[in-house]
Structures are given as C-alpha cells and as structure tokens.
Amino acid sequence: MGESKQGTISVKKTCWDEKYTVDSCHKVFCAPWQRCVDGRCICKLPYQCPRNKTIGACSDSNKSFLTYCQLKSAECTNPKYRFNSESPCAGKFEISLKDSNGAATTKNGIVKIKLPKNTIESFVCPEKWTITESNVACRQLAFPQGASIETLRYNILKQEESNHDCLQVTCRGSETTLAECSIKKAKSTKNERAGVSCYDKKNECETGLFTCVNGKCIDFNHTCNGQNDCGDLSDELCCSECKNSFHCKADVCIPKEYKCNGEVDCISGEDEEKCEDIPQVPKGKSENSEISVVDEGSNAVDYDIEAERRLIRDSIPKLQCGLPKTEHIRVKRIIGGEKAEKNQFPWQVAIKDGTKINCGGIYIGGCWVLTAAHCVRADQAQRYRIMVELLDRLVYDQDLDSFPVKSVKVHELYNPNTYENDIALLEVVNIYNEPSCMQVDNNLVAACVPWSPYQFMPGESCTVSGWGRAEGFSKVFHLKWGNIHLMNNCSTVYEGRFFDKMECAGTYDGSIDSCKGDSGGPLICYAGKVAYVWGIVSWGENCGEPGYPGVYTKVAHYFEWISRHVGRQLIAKLDI
Questions:
Q1: Of the listed 374, 401, 538, 575, which one is catalytic?
Q2: What is the per-residue pLDDT across 377-433, written as a single tens digit (0 to 9) for each?
Q3: Which residue of 15, 158, 461, 544 could cross-link 238, Cys pair, CB 3.0 to 4.6 Å?
Q4: Catalytically annotated residue among 23, 232, 422, 513
C-alpha cells in the first residue's frame, strides 16, 4: 500500500440530485425486456427475450407476438405495441372515465373497464385501488405523469348499484396499461367505486412539495412510503428510512408485501432472506375481508400476467459466480485476522512478478483476473504469472496451476500519484485450450462483479484477504483474512486524497487492515451467500493505523469498463 499526493476534492452529488427513476438500474432491476448499460435500463431487441412463455400476446394495434416479453420489447421503442390482451387478437381492452351520473369525462372520474370480447363496462373495486393503480390508469389515458394523490374513490349515488360486480385490479406500478395488471372478477359491499384525478399540471412545484423527476409535485409525506406516488418511482429511491414499507439497503423503499414473495426486488436480495417464518396469504383470499374474489386465481382477461412476468424473469440465464464449491462452517464470528482454509476464498489468486509474489488478484471468470493498476505494467505482460489455489507462499504443491499472462489492461485514466482509477485486468493464456480457461481441474470460482455502487452500503461487514505484511511489517506467507466494515466517505480522514470512485473500509481501532503485499487483492461483500468483489486493495496510511482505514478501488464504478474488455456476458450475473 502507499500514499497519494495532495489533490482536489471533487464535489459529490446527493442521491436526490442523481434523479433516479424506475429506469435507473443502479437502484432497481431492469424489466426482463431491458438491460442495464451505464446505470440506465435500455431496450432489448425482441429476439433477445427468453423463448419460454405461457401464451402469446396481442398489442393495441392488433399485432400478435409470440411472447409478452417480445411485445414489451417492441413497445419499448414504439408505444403502438402497448399490451392489449392474449393472442390471437379479439376485441379491445378499454378504460374510460365517467362522472357519478354516467357522463364521460376526460381526466377526473370513476374508472370503468371494458374487457376484450365483452360488450359491457365494469366498475373497479375500491378496496385495493391505490395511487399505484391510479398512475397506470392515467398513463393509459395519455397523462404521462400519472394521477394526483387525491380522489381515488367515488361514492355511488344509487344504493342498489353498490352490490354490483366489480373488477379487482392490482398493479406493480411500471405498467403502461391496466391490461398488464392482475385483474380478477370480484364483489364489493362498499358503496364506492375506484376513480382517478389525472395529473396535468405544468407549473414548478411550490415550496414544501417534492419534485418528481417527471415534474409531478407531491407532498413530502408521500415520499419513502413504498408506494410509487410519482409514477416514475423517483420518490422511493433515496430513502434512509421507509414508512410502513420494506427498506432495501440500497436506500430504496418497496411495498412490505414484496418481502418474501418469492421474487427478488432489492438489488442485493435481502427482501428474500430469512423468509421461513413469514406467513403466506392463501391463494384467492383478499387482505380486505369486504371483498370476495369470484373466479379464484384466474385473470379476468384470461391472461395470467404475473405468471408470464415471473416465467420471463426465471427464464433469463443467471451467471454462476460467487458461490464456493465447498461451504466453510464456523462456530463463531471471526473479527481478527485468521489463516485461510483451502478453497475458502476460491477467487483469490496470487500474481507472481518474476520470482516474487508482491500482489494479489481476483478471478472474475474466463481467462480474466482483476487487480490494482499499481501492481502491473501494461507493456510487460511476460513478467507475470497467475497462481491459483495458493495458500502458503513458502510451502505449496508444485502441481498448482499457474498461468502465463497474455495481456495487461491498465485503466487509461489511472493516476499513479493519486491512485485514482487504480484498476487493471490481466488476461491469461488459455493453456488448456478449454472454454472454461482457468477453471480446469481445480476449485477456482469467479467472484461476481457488482454493477451498482449501492449494492453494499457503509456499516456492512465485508472480508479482505491476502499475503500482505502483518503488524510491524513482518512478512506473511500464509493467506490471511479478516472482517472489516465499509465506512462513510473518507474525504475528512484523507483530505484532498480521497476521490469519488474509492471506498474506505477497516476497523475503528485499526486491528484489521490490508497492508503492503495485499495490493490488488479482494474486498469481498456478500449478498446472502453470493460473493461480490466490492473493492480492490489500493492504498492507505501505513497499516493498521487507528483512524486511518484502508482505501479500495470501488469496483462497481468500473462495471462498464470491465465489460468492454471481457465481454458483458462473462460478468453480468442477472442479465443486466
């Protein structure tokens, strides 16, 4: 490790300044018909959708598609392909607004739905009608900002109408039409019907109101409550706390019913952890006892949209990374530096420079190893070999794999004076001439590469490992590891030397730290049991100095740079 020279502190934006929305994949997952590029969800081409399907889909323009995903991929670039019903095309899904006397209105009124193949219009049940569904309805009616918060229900003037059948509608919030929502025939005893007041204001928001990224104004009380009040989700993506909802550690609020629903919604997956004791709602039952589902489990338009969406997500190939082949079980939490066991960190490699091992590296798949730029020289690939499954630098099995390095890719903006962009890639020679390259007859496992700088947050415990110097700078020959904590911005500690794409981590007493010789090695953080290479050991103030944590290259900021060199399919764990 080393020290950088004096520099200039860059001005950091706040989370709200970043203007995150439902299409910001650093905060939320993209839809299955999109992929994540530079933090934004962009459209896939229809042929890139999974082929699995429940049934074909039909658009508003009466065009049939083999799958719902293909239709949504087409709609992503052309709104005329908005979903209408199942295929083959037969009839229209239509919504309209009526006043209490049944006269048509344009932006305020009771919502009525006419299903494909039906000639009559149906009311919408009020019990589960929220701002989420209202936003979708108004979006379908050509109000892109969605609905106003107020006026979600209307009283029915005639008492005899209050017992009429209605449609129970439940949306996730990102749909462009109510036809994409879950719709069931139901009965309601309430003397109300669902309605909307669509938002079409163009003025700047008054003082005391929150400005959504789409320009809509809402009360601050409606932010961070797990509900997509803005319609573009921008009110739920920068929340240190959540009201009556589930808090993802990326500071995102999701509806509490998304916890343990069998689908990962938080980007680090914590909403699907510790789910054994969560009671499941019986199928066909409503949370509100005043509404009864008539055709249990079936969709009113004969299209199970939720099953289709889940099938699409489940059909997307998932990269296998970050899971050791053998699990190490310990009876207590280790807080000090400990000797590593065989295959405990199967992504850890050693970089041999001539006859010496001066740096570590991280295997990320194929023929590629990640390390620090200050460990290598771009024009001297022949100097390096990558040693796999090494535990002890003095006593090791001579049969251990070692790979000659074919090329060295140092980040083009690496600054050796400040350690900015201290990251490099090593491509090894495929000595076995196998597609798996380095993973032939060994226990090597790729660490996952994070795509979002919000996957792990300050305070989380992560693991650093390496052969670096110990206390007093004494040499270490056996691979050691320790748990350390991610810390808040270290600009105060390292004034003028800590930059945006750096991460600091350590213990407050300095008892565990990375040191000289650990450089280029991994700082691993875990999402459940899956290991992500969150940082690369870069520099710091001496070693184990209280109040001076180690500084790491924050790998998530370099996902696009890494993918340009190694190929996105090699490191994109979730088809991002």
A1: 374
A2: 999 999 999 999 887 766 666 667 899 999 999 999 999 999 999 999 999 999 999
A3: 15
A4: 422
